[in-house]
Amino acid sequence: MAKNKLQVTYDFDFLLLAVNASVKPYKLAWSLNKELGLNLMKSENIEIGFTQTKSLSIQNFAHITDFQTVRLIRNKAEDVNGSFSGFLLPELKNFDYLILLENESITFNENVFISEIKQIPFVQFVSKINTQSLKSKDNLIF
User: What are phi and psi of 62, to 5 degrees?
Assistant: First the structure.
């Protein structure tokens, strides 16, 4: 009997920025709101379940409008006890946070956006990441 395989390809149509900032997530979200005019609000933690006993929790903040979605995601994941357990994107383990930007506006300038993030005093480094080169890019689908 012949078997059919379902192959699914996802469209990673967003800008991904990796950020180094040694502050709590809520402080970075507040600073991004202040500097960029966003309204990042704490969203429910992203839960990734592997087995019945093993699951990871990832903090995230979201700013959602009709034409733009900005998510601040903590790269370090915690287990159910709140202790460090791994990374959302293991190949970017040197970065503390990820900013996921889905934008449909033609007037948006990503270089200005990145330079404004770099102006925040406790942000040490911001880098644009090519999602196609990531091995664990499927972790960004939620």
Answer: -135, 145
